[in-house]
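Anyone? Bumping this.
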Amino acid sequence: MPKIVVIGESGQLAQSLRALHWPSGFTLALHGRRSLKGNLEADLLRDVLRTEGAHLVVNAAAYTAVDHAESEPQAASALNARLPQTLAAACAELDLPLVHSSTDYVFDGQKGAPYVETDAPNPLSVYGQTKLQGERAIEQAGALRRWAILRASWVVSEVGDTFPVKLLRRARAGEALRVVNDQWGCPTVASDLARAIQEVALRQLDGEGAACGLFHFCGASDMSWYGFAERVLAAAKKTGLKPPPLQAITTAELNAPARRPLYSVLSCARIRQSLGLSAVAIESDLDRMVRSILAR
Ligand SMILES: NC(=O)c1ccc[n+]([C@@H]2O[C@H](COP(=O)([O-])OP(=O)(O)OC[C@H]3O[C@@H](n4cnc5c(N)ncnc54)[C@H](OP(=O)(O)O)[C@@H]3O)[C@@H](O)[C@H]2O)c1
């Protein structure tokens, strides 16, 4: 009975992995803060993997609060840099494949064209720096035979305090909707990312070498956050919501604590060509997602 251990429990990706249909006989065990009780030490993680009888590990845990990370670099580093390093060592020791998730924020956004996996990262924020350290720890864990890293961008779902959830909360409350129009990326539906990770995981368990390495995976449409907000509000209007007008602002006007890349569109050519995987455009799931958020 193949057992997948997912690190992370309540987050978007962890919940999407749980919600997927897995081949018969596969089981999933999710371990987040509740079961690990904040202990991310090597001994404990190794014990968890042994006790669960893990066949493969997916790391869906991360410190994703990009602005807070600027004032909590140690907490961000513990989750984004040290946890992948510890997991890589544990997986190497137990000879388990490790599938890890990372971010477009490892790039500085200056390229002006979609980023490929061989482009040099240059993170602008503590979040991006610590995520890059996590990637490097996995890549450089020499004894780890099988690993994959999927870099995604702008991951959204109805779980947690995501961009569409926050936007619709403000829209319902009649608050001002000011959204940056000069940061471009590709929103990725969390369930889509989960499906790609599942596919990579299953192929690693089948011993497929092409499923190892660094991959970019994101939604098929590029847009600004403002353009994304327009689409979310258009979907919300179909349900009868009458939101306040949307105002475009610049990154400089927003003056957020963390710097973000202005253009972090990822090229997904590698994962498409080597594994036949491609993400859908965000628009295809937006009506359902918006209805689900508004139904709460
Ligand atoms: N969100 C985005 O926009 C975005 C964009 C690009 C890439 N990514 C990447 O995608 C991946 C998934 O992100 P997400 O959006 O699903 O994040 P999320 O919704 O913020 O969830 C964070 C996850 O981390 C777990 N976690 C936090 N502290 C933990 C601890 N001390 N011990 C164990 N687990 C802990 C949480 O589990 P519990 O709450 O159950 O403890 C939760 O499952 C991450 O690698 C992230 O860097 C995200």
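Late reply, but here is one note on the structure posted above: The mean pLDDT is 96.
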